[in-house]
Design a protein that fits this description.
alpha/beta, 16 helices
């Protein structure tokens, strides 16, 4: 696709330079918001404390190579295609991706057989038939059909819309959507729903893990999270050059469209005058005046006063029990043998519930963790033959409690918990047949305390508030706030965590800003057009 200059929406002339917006944070939500505002004629400045764009998308240099050490799964490509297309750019040309045929490979302690989920549901059905039984294969077909219906009904009213209320959700869903939710049992947990859909406990485990994509427990997350199955079947891609390429390309496009980006600069507070946001003050004392301020960060930072007392009341402080998962990760450059890794791999222990009882019930590191490995040099066919036996890039991850507000460093009891969790992690991998040949200087451990330092006011929580209970969708923060001129974006607000959802939050924040600038009313909700049902021309005919 040939790139063109961004069109002026609705034939409107660019806005006056007095319409200046400051976006705090150059994560995916902040960059998407900045690009969307710039193409609508606003003068936009992004201020970021870190050295570059991406937020939670960040690579670590380990053993002389860059390893994706934040998000590693890329889905909902249409969100980015539409964002780039609206700015007159080709996503495919700027962010080359490879479609994955194998979504993930799964293994269980004490079981010799592995189970691959495929992008092609028929292949997954055949794999489940062989792994479990034809009866479970039929249940899988029914599960996929239900997830598909649920996603189609919720994409517009939830994913592409500003945070709904219960009344607006019922209105937007219509009879068909309400019937789909009623059949699902909206008040049930994800685990209760899966227990009714599958008899094989291993399949309950596998699909129950979707709750962790939102930092939640399957026993407390709402049943609606089963729609993630449809999200993955719509496509999972590997970004060439790593996930950082996604953030860098978005930042480059924003710069080309006039967005000023300032890195290594911290905001001391958000300025409020006459009851309205009027800009920010940097920790250097410099003031940036603005008509619009967008905070792209964890809303708990506002509640704790990190952005000044004037905006502290717009978000309630998060209670310990409301925090989502943290993690303990190992960014590694090491050879492996035994287990045939693919791009995404999951290793389950024998007692799945104990993992979440430990984390959410007792606030401790799990004694039987589930282990996720992103083998970043592998695709469906594994490693290239010439790379066999050589060191490869991996991110090894286990879930952990968001406990990093206990101090600047873990206490002795925490150190012991983490050591035991680490030993259990690599023992599980060996039991499942994977040998990781670890070397000093070729791996880096990241703990909740490291995440807290990188993302202040989170206690290491990686997904904003936990998605627990059927009301959690209505409690998450909205793009608008009670202070005129101040808006929110990022994974801690609607529509939720994850790279595509955080990006969508930025688009929703920008749409809300423009709706307020173009109207004296702040009451109407915004809805972004498009979606999976309206795929852009850039993906037409793609495999």
């Amino acid at each position: 696709m040939t790139e063109v200059s961004p069109p002026v929406p609705n034939g409107r002339e660019p806005r006056s330079a007095r319409d200046h917006a400051v976006v705090i944070g150059a994560g995916m939500g902040g960059l998407a918001c900045a690009l969307s505002l710039a193409r609508r004629g606003l003068s936009v400045t992004v201020v970021e404390a870190g050295p570059g764009p991406g937020g939670k998308i960040w690579p670590l240099q380990v053993g002389g190579v860059a390893i994706d050490s934040g998000p590693t799964v890329f889905t909902m490509r249409w969100v980015f295609e539409q964002l780039f297309e609206e700015a007159g750019a080709s996503f495919a040309a700027r962010v080359p991706c490879e479609s994955l045929g194998i979504l993930a490979r799964h293994a269980w302690r004490g079981h010799d057989r592995r189970l691959d989920l495929h992008a092609n549901p028929s292949q997954s059905r055949a794999a489940i038939d062989a792994f479990s039984s034809p009866q479970e294969g039929r249940r899988f077909d029914a599960f996929c059909a239900e997830a598909r219906r649920l996603y189609r009904h919720l994409e517009g009213p939830y994913i592409r819309s500003e945070r709904p209320s219960m009344i607006s959700m019922m209105k937007d869903l219509g009879p068909g959507g309400l019937l789909a939710l009623t059949g699902l049992g909206p008040f049930r947990s994800l685990w209760q729903t899966l227990s009714r859909r599958f008899s094989d406990a291993r399949l309950q485990q596998l699909f129950g893990r979707y709750a962790t994509y939102c930092g939640a427990s399957p026993w407390q997350a709402p049943a609606t999270l089963m729609l993630i199955a449809q999200v993955e079947m719509d496509g999972v891609w590997a970004v060439r050059g790593g996930m950082k390429q996604l953030a860098s390309s978005l930042a480059d496009l924003a710069g080309e469209r006039g967005v000023v980006q300032r890195y290594g600069v911290r905001v001391a507070d958000i300025q409020v005058e006459g009851g309205r946001a009027r800009g920010v003050r940097l920790d250097t004392g410099e003031a940036l005046r603005a008509d619009t301020v967008v905070f792209n960060g964890d809303v708990n930072a506002l509640a704790l006063g990190s952005m000044g007392a004037a905006v502290r009341t717009i978000a309630p402080a998060r209670r310990i029990q409301d925090r989502s998962l943290s993690a303990m990760t190992w960014s590694m450059h090491a050879p492996t043998d035994g287990f045939p890794l693919t791009r995404h791999n999951v290793f389950f222990d024998s007692d799945y519930r104990s993992e979440f009882d430990d984390i959410f019930g007792h606030g401790r590191f799990p004694r039987r963790p589930t282990v996720y490995i992103c083998a970043q040099d592998r695709h469906d066919l594994g490693l290239p033959s010439e790379a066999a036996g050589q060191a490869e890039r991996m991110l090894v991850l286990v879930n952990a409690p968001a406990c990093a507000d206990e101090g600047h460093a873990p206490a002795n009891t925490r150190q012991q918990e983490m050591q035991a969790c680490q030993e259990r992690t690599f023992e599980l991998l060996r039991t499942c047949g994977l040998q990781v040949h670890r070397e000093l200087g070729h791996e880096q451990l990241t703990t909740p305390w490291d995440f807290q330092r990188r993302y202040p006011a989170t206690a290491g929580s990686l997904y904003g508030p936990a998605t627990h209970g059927w009301m959690s969708s209505f409690r998450r923060g909205s793009s608008r706030t009670t202070i005129p001129g101040l808006y929110l974006a990022g994974g801690s607000v609607h529509p939720g965590p994850g790279v595509p959802m955080a990006t969508m939050s930025g688009r929703l924040a920008a749409a809300t800003v423009m709706a307020h600038l173009d109207s004296t009313s702040r009451s109407s909700r915004v809805v972004i057009s498009g979606g999976i049902s309206m795929q852009s021309a850039m993906t037409a005919g793609m495999p």
